[in-house]
Amino acid sequence: VEKTSVEIFEVGPRDGLQNESRPIALADKIALVDCLSRGGFRRIEVASFVSPRWVPQMADSGAVLAGITRVPGVRYAALTPNLRGYQDAHAAQAGEVAVFGSASEGFSRANLNCSVADSLLRFAPVLAQAQADGVPVRGYVSCVSDCPFDGPTDPGAVVRVVAALRDMGCYEVSLGDTLGQGTPERIAAMLRAVLGEVAPDFIAGHFHDTAGRALDNIAVSLEQGVRVFDAAVGGLGGCPYAPGAAGNVATEAVQARLTDLGYATGLDSGVIAQAAAMARAMRGARDAV
Ligand code: HMG
Ligand code: MG
């Protein structure tokens, strides 16, 4: 019997590293991506074209995209909050880009310096230009469960932003439990609301693991038909504009759980272990000082 396949979208080089306060050498970032490129991933998020004042660690994103050895069949992704970011990402030959919005107003202000409605207005020209260039655009919705500023999120607010990103032309929307405080019950209820609007193959799960429930939240998402999950090797990361949030769920932990549950990921565990060790060493270099 052929196993159902589930894709892990590796976000470590972006979400995993963006929160590190000490500068990480360009060569180390490139080495991490080059290692991951041999792991069997189809998509790896490696860059973020945001203001260098806001996220200094991502300021060398163009150099990362220029320095990596691209493996055929792997798409290298970049965050693009506005048209300026998109133009830089396209010039750096990002294989796909992502706009990132929020289901809550407080986080939208903290992360993008504008309201949810205004963020969608800024995304529209990104989608239009990307469509003209033939570049796929992913969407993120943050704070699908809780907001560090506004408290618990109404699932209806998630549905509205997902629908707006679909209407704009995103090919997939990743639902972010940015704070990592969602319970399986609340994640399941939020997903039921979202799946009343879009099909499960339009959705990815993006769980931070602050409270240690990310794997359980992945399990309830699998039950509802979600088949793409974001993860970061070594479990690094967090968002600098989400106080109290910890790293993404670790790729190696998701890979192990999916294998236990009988799903096929197509990933090479040996390469992932090697990348996880590299990612942890990049962080250790900071901790040692
Ligand atoms: P703003 O201050 O409202 O924008 O920030 P602005 O247009 O007034 O520009 C301010 C400055 O930024 C100017 O430079 C611009 O040139 C520059 P200055 O005059 O001060 O020297 N600027 C840019 N520079 C480089 N690239 C650009 C760009 N745009 C403007 N694209 C802005 C608005 C969006 C720029 C800012 O809020 C920002 O950069 N935010 C990014 C925050 C961020 O990266 N957060 C982490 C990623 S999201 C995340 O981690 C969540 C996720 O993982 C899912 C989840 O877990 O939920 C995806
Ligand atoms: Mg995140």
Describe this structure in words.
It comes from Roseicitreum antarcticum. This is Hydroxymethylglutaryl-CoA lyase. Residues 6-273 form the Pyruvate carboxyltransferase domain. This protein has 11 helices and 10 strands. The protein is of the alpha/beta class. The mean pLDDT is 95. The strands form 2 sheets. Strands 1-10-9-8-5-4-3-2 form an 8-stranded parallel sheet. It has a two-stranded antiparallel ribbon with strand order 6-7. The longest helix has 19 residues, at 269-287. It is globular and about 45 Å long. α6 (116-133) runs parallel beside α7 (155-168), α7 packs across α8 and α8 (184-194) packs parallel to α9. It has helices spanning 12-16, 26-36, 61-67, 83-91, 105-112, 116-133, 155-168, 184-194, 214-223, 251-260, 269-287, and strands at residues 7-10, 43-48, 75-79, 96-102, 137-142, 146-147, 151-152, 172-177, 203-207, 228-231. Magnesium ion binds next to loops.
